[in-house]
Amino acid sequence: MPMKLSKRGAELIKSFEGCHKASGGGFKAYLCPANVLTIGWGHTNGSGRAFDKNSVWTQAECDAAFDEDMASYEGPVNRMVQVPLKQHQFDALVSFAYNCGVQALRGSTLLKKVNARNFDGAALEFHKWVRGGGKVLPGLVRRRAAESMLFQDIPDRNHDGKPDMPQAAAIR
Q1: pTM reported for the whole predicted model
Q2: How many domains in the chain?
């Protein structure tokens, strides 16, 4: 049975791909830090619904495009991964593929290590993918850290790339 993105995975992706450029009745298209035309929850013209620089989408349109986009990334991740995954590992890989592209995942050492069942090594590979437009971007550093932690099932509810403190430690 093919895996599907969980609520936890969708929350991680949406925390980095938040609907930007709210304007009156909706969300405007914008250029992301890598200079790619984007709208809604990180949707680009690479798949699904087409839009242009003057497009404005409602929240419902952004949400529908997100669901469609996730379906178009779940399939390739399911096909490329040749070993059983836990839900949190699958979610992290879908987030990575959505942000970096299916082709990037396909040719990556990350995927090679996953398929070799070297999950500890795979978790370290996320951190190598932090460039956008040729520059190291702080948002990508944080996203890759959050994806790596999700892949390892380390709690990071606010997706800041830092492990949540255990309750007992937080009280001290």
Answers
A1: 0.88
A2: 1
